[in-house]
């Protein structure tokens, strides 16, 4: 039986097309096929994008848990003497909020803060005749266990006299040092 040139060409094109389709599809592997992102995280190009309040390779960690626990504080304010004391950071009203008990070794009410990545932010708030605000950042990320550290910069301002006690927040102005928190 004699094959025509047309049949050979069609057969060759079909074979090459099939081969190209297999090669193309094998090169475009779905990198998210084997990745499971926890806590409503979404896989994008092989990496998890975490929902607010979660961190980790697979969004497995509640971010604020890295900040909770008892911290030993070492600090000296711009108008106060050096002191050491403990604060207790507990979970707040939502997945990103925390409460800080014994803040500045002064407040009997907890100071509210929220976490964003490796930062903790204290929004401006009035407590016990004082106004407090500031922020801090983890300088070690192993705070899941017993070790960790936060560099905290904040201000406590008297509501009546407006006198500020600065803990590194306005260091460029008053040369104050940040508060150091350790687990």
Architecture overview:
- The protein is mainly beta and 183 residues long.
- It has helices at 5-27, 171-174; strands spanning 42-44, 47-49, 54-55, 61-62, 69-75, 83-91, 97-101, 111-116, 119-127, 130-140, 149-158, 164-167, 179-182.
- The protein has 2 domains: 5-61, Laminin; 67-182, Lipocalin, CATH 2.40.128.
- The chain contains 2 helices and 13 strands.
- The protein has an 8-stranded antiparallel β-barrel with strand order 5-6-7-8-9-10-11-13. It has a two-stranded antiparallel sheet with strand order 1-2. It has a two-stranded antiparallel ribbon with strand order 3-4.
- The chain is elongated and about 100 Å long.
- The termini are far apart.
- The model has no long low-confidence stretch (mean pLDDT 89).
